[in-house]
User: Fold these one by one.
Assistant:
Number 1:
Amino acid sequence: MNHASLPADWIGGWQSIAQRIAIVDRTRTLTYGELASIVFAAARLLRSQGLQPGDRVALILDSSWQYVACYFAVLLAGGVVVPLNPAARDRDLGSWILHAEATCAIAEHSYAGLAALRAVLPAGCRLNVCGGEGDLLVSPQYAAADRGEFPPASAQAPATILFTSGTTGAPKGVLLSQGNLGANAAAIVDSLALSADDSVMGVLPFTYAYGNSVLLSHLSCGARVVIQRGFGFPQAVVESMVRERVTGFAGVPSTFTLLLSRVQLNDFDLSDLRYVSQAGGAMPSALLKRLVSL
């Protein structure tokens, strides 16, 4: 695969690595071929519902295989992904959806705030669900979609709106293009020398810029993403890292603080781990020294 291309174009390339594992989630493991089929079908369904190029689609989903499939389905259909934290307050979700001018929202059917979400959706904003009745990702009638019906993406086409953390004021939506996402993924792939033989433990929320970058950079080169929802039980995460033989781990300073304070890392065989990356703030020098000394 050419990781320097655009995210909406990667999906077609996934057919050349159809048998490789793309996503390992607690409920499902997907090959690249399976992921591509789901994405194409969901993209065609979104188009049939009236999604137009440039329309904004809010994803109110935890990090999961469903999130990944919906993210790329929106991109393939020409939409703009607006990832939102499902743990946010109802009124904040409503405000962000309104600010982004989203015409569609996607949530998990078991999402505890689903009824409240329906109440705060702006007029004209359609709600789709993953799982349960009307599952967006189970669309047999669209499974045989003509993949040629989706034109190649433009580098200048808007791809996603990521909201800032709001530390200095109200969160602001930052618009990134297909070219922005592709360039970031390519830079990370080159910097870490990523290849299809790599796999990363994904503990960072995909709704944030860093987690989004980790996800896209690995899927751009045919690597494997092992999804861990949350970091409340660090030892379980490390056990999964050993079991899945991951080669990479990404975190923020607090991630490594929890990891080093709650887990005896020397008790685990992490010989497959090739790279560790950190962002989201400066790591204290004492913490860095402890990490490097392992």
Note: The mean pLDDT is 92.
Number 2:
Amino acid sequence: MSRKICVIGANGQLGSDICQSFELHGDRVLGLNHDDVEITDIESLRNVLKEIKSQVVISTAAMHHVGNCEDDPRKAFLVNGIGSRNLALVCRELQYPLIHISTDYVFDGKKKVPYIETDRPVPLNVYGNTKLSGECFIESIAEKFFILQVSGIYGKNPCRAKGSNFVQTMLRLAREKDEIRVVDDEILTPTFTGDISNQIVELLNGEPEYGLYHVTAEGRCSWFEFAAEIFSMTGIDIALYPADPGEFAGNVLRPKHCVLENKHLKDQNLNVMSHWKEGLKKYLS
């Protein structure tokens, strides 16, 4: 049976793939962008969502750029915290289930084995803190919600805040440089947005319990190992070296080992996420 799905942030890196996945499934998708709705303005949000009469609201809207969040924590909290609170209030009022996209940056990366959904979050930076505040607002206000924590995402559409994703950046640098240096001390699970989008469709097709879910590819790697696999799959011969410790250090603390386990999905036999290498292969094809 066809559903009416509202996607907020429909022109973004993940939002565009979510729209496509639900359309391919036969659902009716209403994509909303920043010009259509402002999540920091609860009246704007209420008026738009009340009018569309959606069966599910999926929000990818956020202030994503980690450096910008650090520079302007007030704005980051307004978008990632208060914006999420507004979504929770309006969706509860209208009885819409809410799917909210969050991040692995709610963790400090000190755990050497994959994080599961019941692990205590300890954010290291403003972005992680404001995203966690959004999660807390949703958990305490919304009646029907899924919070999906994702990691290292890349997709066909550019991220509105960051521009090119890591894969495209590596391919561009390979055209411009004789050698490339990439950090080897940050471990994560790079995840193709097409796979996340298909997982969300499968989640709604099942009978899942509401709550917090990890939605990442299987496996783990460093950014250096990810770059090496990109060049291997594309047949690019480039001198690739691990960066020295602190070579690309910025002003933002980042978790060093942020690998998530999709335990909640697996416990309900709903996990369809493939290995990160398979996701990369699909993206490059």
Note: The two ends are 31 Å apart (CA to CA).
Number 3:
Amino acid sequence: MSRREIRAVLPCLASILVGMAGAAHGQSTAADAKAILKSASSYVSSLQTIELDFDSDIEAVTPELEKIQFTNSGSLTLSRPDRLRAHRVGGYADVALYFDGKTATVHGKSMDAYAQFALPGTVDQLIEALRAGHGIAVPGADLLLSRPYEALVADVLDAKHVGRGVVDGVECEHLAFRNFDTDWQIWVEVGDKPFPRKLVITSKTVAGAPQYTLRVKRWKSGFTADPAMFQFTPPAGTRQIGADQLIGLDELPPEAPAGAKP
């Protein structure tokens, strides 16, 4: 082979090698991302009791493609396998959820009303029933399942370990995943307690690609939860409504345009 031929071949060879290196790196970062996510999922699902405080932001996009963000804060207590209590308050709703393994109650404090329905089963079954039948999303619900990793990666098409970041002063591993209709990112605390600290979901099929953000400010585990805290007693003057009237308890005001989905 002549020098001229060698000079012609070298750029092509270099391009091929770079492409192979990039593919190998992509496979490595995807494996890393899934391994970190699996570690966090296994850790959280191993905890019998969990208590956390959170802030959440949900974006809506107007017909003029202006993004408006609505902010909520709340708390959640979980006692596996069949007890959950959550509370969320924002500018448009103050709502609490009680579940004692037999009955689920959604209390709209701002409406002085509650809806209640029989639901014997686990927290996993509660989350699925609320999503399917009532359009209610428990903040970070997939992270609370008994097998969260399987649910989180079920429809993943691409995964990346972006690097590290800091959330509320806590160093975290930053992971990014892609589904068909959503992109989502999660920040997992570095160390022997890999708590998820932040979750961002981007809705790609909605104009303007609005985002839902959940930031967990405090995690607590290893305590004994009083069973009575998961049972609901209606305050005086509170009326009972049908489950189909729960639309007034959304994170968005009724007249808000399409928003991101948690």
Note: The chain has a mean pLDDT of 85.
